[in-house]
Design a protein that fits this description.
globular; five-stranded mixed β-sheet; alpha/beta; 40 helices; six-stranded mixed β-sheet
């Protein structure tokens, strides 16, 4: 009887539960129907069904039936509860997806996705992909709204999930790989993004199951886009052909419109403009029955095409429809800064000045707002990527302002320059100052450790090709750790100090004394509609002035042609007979009439003017000339400049060969590095021992403490020890400096590191510049911290905030890759990043003997209390008497 009852109980329990499940399936059949409508392009019907289903699910959170006891048991059971959770997740995700993609109510979509995330997190581990899918949608919504900081949080969380996935899940979640690729590219890691896309493409192209999927087609289109962007003609053609083969399967789908769009770009890239226009028009036609957002994207693509072809009337019409379509959909101008700029320029080209000014002002303010927001929770590298990404846009905005006749436009230009110029560096320096103020030794130590390990890993990735993938993964991990630290620091109330500061030109003016003048050199496109040729200008700020003075200078091509190479003859020709020389006439003579009565002139340089010796141009003037990385630095010049020399470190007469016979060699790569550095490839500098010895005698006369590092003691290890000696105020370095432009970086890998494959290009300019000390290889750990090559990247990770002055008595230490927004990427940026207040550096290969004498004269003045600027100018005048040629005395400049 007991047995029969038990069996009967199972039957009674099973049959209603099976019916219950059937009823639930029937109740939520609209989910599939909604997806079908969406796929068919019946978007309004899809939305209606999704909304209906959602309302039903909200009204019937519990399942009604006459079997109320069994219903309660079913809902209370683990299996039943998870079954319902999966259903509710699907319903709410479905409705949110429709709202998001139709642009009907983005905030409601976000709310629903958050509910989905809560549900997904309650499910069993097998439903983990639901968590990731929801986070992807939330991240994309934040990006579409321009909330890069919040999007960053979601993507970093997704990256963490991505790293934990096993191979089976990775194949299932290729969409996550592609989303992460998009995220990596948005953060500036273009190489990483492309690498992930290629991995996804390789996985799919070798698996027949993916050959006709939307995801595979999307990857092919993404690869086509990347090859067009990188100007790779051959591979772009291959992916275009592949896309054509696949396209017929997807005709009528949303992705087909993107195929037409990409083919338009490809044909434009190939120079087939009529075919390109046809593709863009077909993309619009194919999206007519699709959500407004998709139609708007295709209108934007055609408008941009017409803009590039200078068909402004057609571009204006397409942009008009684009803005009418996109604004009501809930998508902000924040993701459309470049279209806004192009729309403004189109208005201007057609004579609609008022509309042009209004639209450009909107783009301008949005860019600055986005920049300030972005800088809150990003690393230095990410900030630098942001400034590079929008640098051209900012320059076009400024060029547009200069074309307008309205009052205050010059002020707008200078305010924009003050906002962007060295913004990434100064924001990061302020952030590091906040960490110090926290007085949390663990946080500061962790930050320094992360930064140093990142720099070291990047250098190793360049040297050890066979381990590059693992090292890049390590870089990703370290970046995540840095983000976590930034979040921790953000919790403190005073962190707003390191957000981007909006400094106006009036604040700069108010810092000037009556005998001071400030000059911001800028360069912008002559014609913003055709931003190819650039002109330089001097924006002059004088005390108590209500207006700024804008002084047009030469075109960039004229200055570049005059600069030529750094040969002795060319330099002497440039700077001899100054006031009658071409360089003086081009860049300095036009501003001199605004300097009457000035005894102190501040200048901030731009572009190729970083290669000009303004010390030489003004050597005979009575005023002092101070070069600042930005006029924002003018506040630092007003601080107490009393010298507090305590300890001095002197490096010179470096021995490049001794360690080669005594070092315990590591692996073959490290052996080659040291062999090339420490062999005869770099000549000894015997004059630097006399230089160091004489400077030491001057120190002795004034009772200053110093340490001399010469010969085999002039090691990288000893230099790194200066970081922990907070009594060091001055560092003098007399050795070989190096800078290799990007197009010669393969030569750099061979001549500096002894590695050459003939094709690997070193993209990071902070690795392509630095100086050489004695090497010190002990053991097998393959470290870069004691190899004798001190790159700018390594220096930038040090903490030298206690150092007032670094003197780089070496060749070409002021050179590097030039960025309009962030200045020179080389040793000068490295020491600025490390916190050094003043840097003396050289612009060309200065003669050894003349340099030694100049340095002795410099210290003779500096140690008697003169400023760095005064001491260097007096030293140059003295050396000039003995060596009249500018090549011998004009190469050194000061950066504050």
């Amino acid at each position: 009887m007991i047995v029969v009852f038990g069996i009967l109980g199972l039957v009674i329990e099973y049959v209603p539960v099976a019916w219950l499940v059937h009823q639930v399936d029937n109740k939520y059949q609209y989910v599939n129907q909604t997806e079908e409508y969406f796929t068919e392009g019946k978007y309004e019907k899809a939305l209606t069904y999704a909304a209906t289903l959602y309302e039903k699910s909200q009204n019937e959170k519990t399942i009604t039936s006459e079997f109320w006891i069994l219903k309660k048991a079913f809902v209370s059971s683990q299996w039943g509860n998870q079954f319902l959770q999966r259903r509710h997740y699907r319903i709410e995700f479905n409705y949110a997806f429709c709202l998001e993609n139709l642009g009907k109510d983005i905030e409601k979509a976000e709310q629903l996705y958050r509910q989905c995330l809560f549900i997904a997190q309650q499910m069993d581990s097998e439903q983990r992909t639901n968590v990731m899918d929801t986070k992807i949608r939330l991240a994309k919504i934040e990006l579409s709204k321009g909330n890069v900081v919040k999007a960053d949080e979601w993507f970093r969380n997704l990256n963490h999930e991505f790293q934990k996935m096993d191979e089976r899940e990775r194949v299932y979640s290729l969409i996550l790989m592609l989303t992460y690729a998009q995220y990596a590219e948005s953060r500036g890691d273009i190489v990483k993004g492309l690498q992930i896309r290629e991995q996804a493409y390789e996985k799919m192209s070798t698996d027949d199951a993916y050959q006709e999927t939307t995801m595979y087609f999307g990857v092919v289109l993404a690869m086509l886009n990347s090859k067009i962007s990188s100007r790779n003609v051959t591979e772009a053609r291959q992916f275009a052909e592949k896309a054509n083969e696949l396209s017929s399967t997807f005709e009528g789908d949303e992705i087909y419109t993107y195929y037409l769009n990409q083919m338009g770009l490809y044909e434009e890239f190939a120079g087939n403009y009529k075919e390109a226009e046809t593709y863009f028009e077909e993309a619009i036609a194919s999206s007519e029955e699709m959500p407004q957002r998709i139609m708007a994207i295709q209108k934007r693509a055609l408008a941009a095409f017409y803009f590039r072809q200078k068909q402004y009337q057609k571009a204006n019409e397409q942009y008009r429809i684009f803005w009418q379509t996109i604004k009501p959909s809930g998508y902000s101008i924040q993701e459309n800064i470049q279209p806004a700029i192009q729309t403004a320029l189109t208005y201007g080209a057609l004579g609609h000045q008022a509309k042009a000014i209004q639209m450009m002002a909107e783009a301008d303010s949005t860019l600055k707002m986005l920049m300030a927001q972005y800088f809150e929770t990003t690393t230095l590298e990410e900030k630098e990527f942001f400034t590079r990404r929008f640098e051209t846009d900012a320059r076009i905005i400024n060029a547009f302002y200069l074309q307008q006749n309205g009052a205050g436009n010059i002020g707008k230009v200078l305010n924009n320059v003050l906002c962007l110029k060295h913004g990434a560096l100064q924001s990061q320096q302020a952030f590091e100052a906040v960490i110090k103020q926290l007085r949390d030794d663990n946080a500061e130590k962790l930050y320094r450790d992360i930064v140093k390990r990142k720099k070291e890993s990047e250098i190793k990735a360049m040297l050890q090709v066979h381990q590059r993938e693992q090292l890049m993964d390590l870089l990703d991990t370290l970046t995540m750790e840095e983000h976590q630290l930034i979040e921790k620091v953000e919790q403190h109330a005073d962190t707003k100090a390191y957000f981007l500061k909006q400094i106006t030109w009036q604040k700069v003016r108010d810092q000037l004394n009556d005998d001071e003048v400030a000059i911001e050199f800028v360069n912008f496109p002559i014609d913003p509609l055709n931003p190819i040729a650039n002109r330089y200008y001097a924006v002059i700020v004088t005390p108590h002035s209500a207006d700024l003075k804008l002084v047009p200078l030469a075109e960039e091509r004229e200055i570049e042609a005059l600069l030529g190479g750094c040969s002795k003859d060319n330099i002497n020709a440039l700077y001899s007979d100054n006031q009658h020389g071409q360089m003086y006439k081009m860049v300095w003579a036009p501003v001199t009439k605004h300097l009457e009565g000035a005894s102190r002139v501040f200048v901030s340089l731009s572009g190729i003017l970083h290669r000009v010796s303004f010390a030489a141009l003004t050597i005979d003037e009575s005023y002092s000339l101070e070069t600042l990385s930005s006029l924002k630095e003018i506040w630092n010049t007003k601080e107490d400049s009393t010298q507090t020399l305590m300890n001095v470190a002197l490096f010179g007469d470096v021995t490049f060969g001794t360690m080669a016979e005594t070092a315990a060699w590591g692996n073959d790569v490290q052996k080659e590095i040291t062999r090339n550095i420490l062999s005869g490839r770099f000549a000894a500098l015997p004059g630097t021992r006399k230089e160091i010895s004489t400077i030491a005698q001057l120190m002795d006369k004034r009772g200053l403490k110093y340490n001399i590092y010469c010969g085999i003691n002039a090691t990288e290890a000893n230099f790194r020890c200066l970081e922990s000696d907070d009594k060091i105020r001055l560092i003098h370095i007399a050795t070989h400096g190096f800078y290799y432009p990007k197009n010669t970086s393969t030569v750099m890998r061979e001549s500096i590191y002894g590695i050459s494959d003939g094709y690997t290009i070193v993209t990071n300019p902070m690795i392509r510049s630095g100086f050489l000390l004695s090497g010190e290889l002990h053991g097998q750990d393959n470290r870069t911290q004691t190899d004798g090559v001190l790159t700018s990247a390594e220096i930038s990770g040090m903490d030298l905030t206690h150092v007032d002055l670094v003197v780089l008595s070496a060749c070409e230490t002021g050179l590097g890759d030039i960025s309009d927004s962030e200045g020179v990427y080389g040793l000068q940026r490295a020491f600025k990043m490390a916190g050094v207040k003043n840097i003396v550096m050289s612009l060309w290969q200065v003669p050894d003997e003349a340099t030694s004498e100049l340095m002795i004269h410099f210290y003779d003045g500096y140690l008697t209390g003169k400023s760095v600027i005064e001491a260097l100018k007096e030293a140059q005048l003295k050396v000039k008497k003995k060596y009249p040629e500018p090549y011998s005395w004009a190469g050194f400049v000061v950066l504050r």
